[in-house]
Amino acid sequence: MANKLVGQNYTTPDLVAKVTGRAKYAEDFRAEGMLFAKLLLSQRPHARVTRIDTAEALAMPGVKAILTADDLPSVVEGANLGEGITASSISERGLTMEPLYVGEPILAVAAVDELTATEAIEKIRIEYEALPFVVDPLESLRPGSPNARTQGNVWVRPAPAPPAPGAKPAPPPQPRVQEWKWTEADFAAAGEGQLPLGKTPDEWSYGDVEAALAKADLVLDETFVGANTSHQPLETRSAMAYWQNGKLYMHCSTQSVMRTIGSVARWVGIDAKDVVIISEYTGGGFGSKGSGYVFTVIPALLSKKTNAPVMMRITREDEQYIGRARPALHSRVRAGFRKDGKLLALDGLAICDNGPYDVVGDSRSAGDHISLACQPEAMRWRMITVLTNTPPRGAQRAPGGMQGNSLMAPLLAKAARKLGIDEVALHRINAPEGKASFGAPNAQGRRPYVTSAFVKQAIDKGAELFKWDERKARSGKREGSKVRGVGMALSCYSAGSMGFDGLIVIKPDGRLAVQSGIGNLGTESVFDVHRVAAEVVGVPWEKVDITWGNTSKNVPNTCGQGGSQTTHAMTRAAHAAGMDAVTKLQKIAAQTLGGKPENYEVANERVFRKGGGSGMSLADAARRAIELGGIYDGHELPSTINAFTTTSATALAGQGLMGVARDAYGRDGSSKSYVAGFAEVEVDVETGAYRVIDYVAVADVGTVIHPRSLGGQICGGIILGLGHAIGQKWVYDKRYGAPVARRFYQTKPPSILDVPRMQWAALDIPDPETPVGARGVGEAPVGAGFGAVVNALAAAVGDEIFRRAPVTADVILAALEAGKPMHDPLTANV
Amino acid sequence: MAAIHDVMPMFALYQPESVDDALRLLDQFGAGAWTMAGGLDTFDWLKDRTKRTEAVVELGNIAELSGIKEVDGGLEIGATTTLTEIAQHPVVRQRFGLLAEAAGLVASPQIRHQGTLGGNVSQDARCWYYRAGWPCYRAGGNICYADTPTAINREHAILHADRCVAVSPSDTAPALVALDASLVIRRLGGERVVAAQDYFVGPGRDITRMTALRPDELLTAIRIPAAWAGAEFYFEKVRDRQVWDFPLVNVASAMKVSGGTIQSLRIVVGAVAATPLRLTAVETAVAGKPRTPETAAMAGRLAVEGAQPLEHNGYKVPLMRNLVARAIRGAGAATT
Known about the structure:
The structure holds 2 protein chains of 2 kinds.
Chain A: H1 15-20, E1 35-41, E2 47-53, H2 55-58, E3 63-68, E4 105-111, H3 114-122, E5 125-130, H4 137-141, E6 154-156, E7 176-178, H5 184-189, E8 202-206, H6 209-214, E9 218-225, E10 229-230, E11 239-244, E12 247-252, H7 261-268, E13 275-278, H8 297-306, E14 310-312, H9 316-322, E15 325-326, E16 329-337, E17 343-353, H10 362-374, E18 378-386, H11 401-419, H12 423-430, H13 455-466, H14 468-474, E19 478-479, E20 482-494, E21 501-506, E22 512-515, H15 525-528, H16 530-537, E23 544-547, H17 566-593, E24 600-603, E25 606-609, E26 615-617, H18 618-628, H19 643-652, E27 657-662, E28 672-684, E29 690-700, H20 707-726, E30 732-733, E31 738-739, H21 744-747, E32 757-762, H22 781-797, H23 809-818
Parallel strand pairs in A: 1-14, 12-13, 17-18, 22-23, 29-32
Antiparallel strand pairs in A: 1-4, 2-5, 3-4, 6-7, 6-18, 8-18, 9-16, 10-15, 11-12, 11-14, 16-17, 19-20, 20-28, 21-22, 21-27, 24-25, 25-26, 28-29, 30-31
Helix pairs in contact in A: 10-11, 11-12, 11-22, 16-17, 17-18, 20-22
Chain B: E1 12-14, H1 19-29, E2 33-36, H2 40-48, E3 55-58, E4 68-71, E5 74-78, H3 83-88, H4 90-95, H5 97-104, H6 109-114, H7 117-122, H8 128-131, H9 172-178, E6 182-187, E7 190-195, H10 196-199, E8 218-224, E9 232-238, E10 249-258, E11 261-270, E12 277-278, H11 280-286, H12 293-303, H13 316-329
Parallel strand pairs in B: 1-3, 2-3
Antiparallel strand pairs in B: 4-5, 5-8, 6-7, 6-8, 9-10, 10-11, 11-12
Helix pairs in contact in B: 11-12, 12-13
């Protein structure tokens, strides 16, 4: 590839619509006769609804229908719902008669306008039978304490049955909820501010942790508690639905367009072929809208019930409750270091505050990404995922990885200070390199490993850009009431899947039509990855037409836009489709102009004999492909592509030369990306207030596809992590099980004026295990955003100031005043 | 009946073009009327449907309520003058920089463009229990949810609590008290002028209101006398975020210093009590004292005498102490 497009900045085709306000998001759509839906939310943290009186509401003029849990598709316990999902009667369904948190939707009203629907909700009488509740996971582990659900308080995955001789091992059993309590002795054994270490249902380990701790020169034992943090993307999870010829048309705000078909079909209880997803623009997802959201079932079924289109606009407060959040991890880690900073052993336990519904994997992911970023020689990781009567959690940008890298950051910085070595040197000596191992060993005792890691180069480059040594010299020195501090952190996250399809058509006018099933969630990958296809077939970007945002428009099987998969997975698919087109062009040229296909090459909108000579334009080749038919124009399709792609490609057959292929490129290892972050803060020790002054991030993410969007992702991820450090949180009154921080001015996500000067760089070293060399970046930066900031704080004011996040002025001032940490680290949501 | 938030209820909207018309409307509707200036406090309540009204009297069309006039060496500021105008006004900046600085630190640029001085000093308590519609003392109930053993009260009062522990959330209020401002209040057929210090009402006097303003009255102007023009001012606001945040604690002071000796002082602290708290004991104690770090430290200690922190707001005691000391030390105190 000549790389005329890959690695260059350009203007994405959606940009003008976005900045001029012409872009249509889910709530901007209108349809003839459209009704509006509003939600009735539970005011109880846990209760059984014993009676709903809707008579007065239904009698109001303009009220058309009420939807309750009784209207939802019934659950067949254990049924295979496809895409790896098994039906469970305790899963979230969108509406409920047993609300499990304050703010859970109980019913929805459809009316001619929102005011009518709202007034109707105020006329509904609901009677509840109160049930026990708990909003603090540690509280729920105490003997005799309440459980969040009638079934219990902890997610437990039963051990798999041993496979019969010769048989394939059975799939892992479904996790279940059961009661799980720690003992009074467990609680008594923990010192002040230390997390108790009770039994956990899940753990993994490798190496001899106790022996390694015994030979360590320094052993730290640290408790750290993070915050639950709401997503609150700028666009709430609104949705509009209508039915036409038996098909459901769903306008929603989703991260993944093609990958939302299956989930909406499951929630609504219909066949995937009867679902059309329309989502050309999405105002942020960050993991909370991976494949849409379960609440799309509400307008879908209200629309069916009323035989009219139904718009459900989700308000800011609704979003605070139903919009998903990152689960807090309550952790305690013992870590043993050699004199030179090498991490010999790590023994950790993490409680994950799961919320009331389906199990989130953050505690497991935390252990994986700790082991990758720090490469301990021996490690044990214990996990317990506790249910609470708080809003449901879900993936939030580096789920688990962020919390894992974050809880380690202050510990590593403290170790460096105690050992008298440089923090950067300590990170460097522990950094992953090459095909580094991570996570739990498999049944054969082998641990997974990554495709590549050039982390030491990223650390070195970051230290140089940040002028680490220069700034460190003044770190911790007080001037008046101000003291500065510098800190660094390393974070990493999953960065790519594989095996999806690409679908392109070179049209007889010489233009390249690209079919994209990628969601437009703001990352620009919906366009960026297709630069690869254009590059491969030698078409200038001005002649590329991308179709996106609508699953009725013939898009291929596409990965979900979550888990930082897309840049990796879909550049591979784009490359495969491009190479398929090139092969076909070479064959057509050889048939038309003589010689062998391999005598021809493709570039500059032509296929021509290598070294010059005869050739033909892509336009001519496209016309020839239509004449030839068969494989050339999509009338015959490869058997390897996904059935969904086959349907789309069949609809496009005969329009030109089709490039269609599954990504069958190999890969040795798991794709992970890495970010080294460096921060400087200035703290006012008389007030505890501080500012983050500077931030430098260097990413190891493989080949750079689009520098400007990469920079946006790196800085955006850093800012998310910074927000977790400086202020964002939930606040609950545990006596009432109710949130008191409900609004932005109370939950305090970071504002643009909290953002420091930022500088970013990428190594731009290709990943050796993918043809384009590119990996994902969305998630890797978040932990470094958090870690570098809190480490800079500790450098400024000391290691014994904070034991939880966020670190706010009151935490700092109270500890400086008392000479010891004053904030109880163990209570959740304060 | 089920509750639902985030949808503006129906109300009649009146947009009078003169103060007299506004007063007639307030008189006509009595307690049923809701006066609205910039709307930042109003829309929060109304959208939440926690407080309702049949009639909103919106002041935006009343030209006579907006603007800054120089009067007898002081200023008269119309109640609906925006915080941005005040923060940027050359005379305010030059002679009463304390107010310009306080106004410029309110909330966010967008809110300052919309929010008014009258609204900023008249806004309701921001206690998150009260604001969420919990039936507390301030809402007419018989409990303070923010003062229970499990309550989360990091942002609540350390001084002068009386059943309710909510604090005054305003940034401009302490500045106005420090400047000896007075507030012009009109009702149909009458006018009264109230010292800023008396405009703000603690729960001991009226637990359901934050100001002396009665339902049929309109705050029309804020008068700042010449007394402190050009004095040495200090304003500082400590908050969690750099923008769009209420104060954890703020401090406003005006000081006259001669030959290194403090001649006279006004010092007022916000967000520690239900009203902006003028520290008269400090003012008296430092008058005539040399302006030294020792005097400042003494002032800080004196300021927090009698403070009674709740479970989560103990930090406010050293924060208030240090801010008061810094105010005495003066501008640049944070870095010297």
